[in-house]
Design goal:
12 strands, globular, 12 helices, alpha+beta
Length: 351
C-alpha cells in the first residue's frame, strides 16, 4: 500500500501534468495560491476571458465562489477533481443548439454562428460542450497513475453493481488489462464500451475525470495507429459509414440542421463498407414505430488534424467489418439528406 507521503507526491505530480497540459491549450496560464491573489489577478485581467480551474483541495466555500462569479471576465469555473463541479454560465439558454439523444447518433449540433462567436456569447449548452472538449484535451495529457486506474475501476463497479456478469468482466479487466490493449478491450462485448461512451455523452465532468486512465490509453493507442497508417493510401479523404436506428423526433431535428456544425461527443465506430453500416441501421424499420433507419456518410480528411486521431482497427476489432475508430471531438458540417429506400435515409456530413 502506498504511504500518505507517496500519495501526496503523486497528487502533486498529477497537478503539475494538468498545468503543463493547460499550457499547451490556453493562450496564457497563471497560477495563484490564495483567494486574494486570484481576485487581484482577475481585476488585472478585466479585458480578457478567463477559464478558472480550482484545485479540489483549495479552501473555497460558497461565499468565495460567489465572489469569483461576480467577475464578468470569468467564463467558467471548474472545481478540478471534485464530485461537485461549480459552473458559471454567462448568457441565456437558447434553442440554437440541437442536442441528439445520448445513445443514438453520437453527435451534438452547434449553432450556425459558433465559428465567429466568443464564448461569453454562446448559450449555456454550447459553453458546456466547449469546456468538455477542453477537459478531454487535458485528460489526454494526464499521467496514468495507479490512483487513476483505481478511480476507473471503482467508477465502473459503481455503474455495474447490480450486474454480476459485468462485475466479473471488471475483475478480469483488472487482472489482465495492459495499456496497449485499449482498442481491443473497447471492441469486446464488455462493460468498457457502455461505460466510456455513456460517460462522455452525458458530459458529466466529474465522471469523465474518473475514467481518465482509460481515455488516455485509448486515445494514445489510436494516435499511434494513426501515425503508422498515415503514409498509406487509406489516409486521404475517406468516406466512412455509420448506421443507426434513431428516434423520428431526432431525425426531424437533423433535417432542419443542414449547414450546421456537429461535434462527435464520444469515440465512434464506423466502417469503410456501406453495407455494414446499412445492416446496423436496421433497414426496414417502419416510421410507425417512432424510429428511423439512418446511414451517416462521413467525409473525413484525416491528415487535417492529428490531435483527433482516426484509424483502421480491423486487426484489433472483434468483428471483421473494416472498422474505423474516430476519436471524440471531430467537428463535421451537416450536408444533404436523401432517401436510399422506402425506410432508409442517407445523411452526408463533412469534416
Amino acid at each position: 500500500m502506498p504511504t500518505e507521503n507517496l500519495l501526496q507526491k503523486i497528487r502533486k505530480h498529477e497537478k503539475f501534468k494538468l498545468f503543463a497540459g493547460l499550457q499547451n491549450i490556453a493562450q496564457s496560464i497563471r497560477r495563484v495560491y490564495s483567494l486574494e491573489e486570484c481576485v487581484k489577478l482577475l481585476r488585472k485581467l478585466s479585458n480578457q476571458s478567463v477559464f478558472l480551474v480550482i484545485s479540489s483541495d483549495a479552501p473555497l466555500n460558497e461565499e468565495s465562489h460567489s465572489k469569483l462569479c461576480c467577475f464578468l471576465n470569468v467564463e467558467y469555473i471548474y472545481y478540478f477533481g471534485s464530485d461537485q463541479p461549480w459552473k458559471k454560465t454567462i448568457g441565456d439558454v437558447s434553442d440554437g443548439l440541437i442536442c441528439f439523444s445520448q445513445e443514438e447518433s453520437g453527435l451534438n449540433i452547434l449553432p450556425s454562428n459558433v465559428e465567429s462567436t466568443k464564448i461569453k456569447n454562446l448559450d449555456a449548452e454550447t459553453q458546456r460542450f466547449a469546456i468538455r472538449q477542453l477537459l478531454i484535451e487535458l485528460l489526454h495529457r494526464y499521467p496514468c497513475t495507479s490512483e487513476a486506474i483505481q478511480d476507473f475501476l471503482a467508477f465502473c463497479r459503481s455503474t455495474c453493481k447490480d450486474d454480476p456478469v459485468r462485475l466479473n468482466q471488471i475483475r478480469k479487466f483488472e487482472n489482465d488489462y495492459r495499456s496497449e490493449q485499449a482498442i481491443w478491450w473497447y471492441t469486446k462485448d464488455t462493460f468498457i464500451f457502455r461505460v466510456l461512451n455513456q460517460t462522455l455523452r452525458c458530459c458529466n465532468l466529474s465522471e469523465m475525470f474518473k475514467i481518465r486512465s482509460y481515455i488516455t490509453d485509448l486515445y494514445l493507442e489510436l494516435k499511434r495507429l494513426y501515425f503508422v497508417q498515415l503514409p498509406m493510401p487509406l489516409c486521404s479523404i475517406l468516406r466512412l459509414y455509420r448506421g443507426k436506428v434513431i428516434p423520428k423526433e431526432e431525425f426531424d431535428h437533423l433535417k432542419k440542421s443542414s449547414g450546421k456544425l456537429a461535434i462527435v461527443n464520444s469515440f465512434l465506430s464506423t466502417s469503410l463498407d456501406k453495407t455494414v453500416a446499412i445492416s446496423y441501421a436496421g433497414q426496414g424499420v417502419s416510421e410507425s414505430t417512432g424510429n428511423v433507419s439512418v446511414v451517416f456518410c462521413m467525409h473525413n480528411n484525416i491528415k487535417a488534424n492529428d490531435s483527433k486521431p482516426i484509424a483502421l482497427i480491423d486487426r484489433l476489432s472483434q468483428k471483421l467489418e473494416e472498422e474505423v475508430l474516430i476519436s471524440t471531438g471531430f467537428i463535421f458540417r451537416i450536408g444533404s439528406i436523401e432517401k436510399l429506400g422506402v425506410s432508409l435515409s442517407n445523411v452526408d456530413i463533412f469534416e
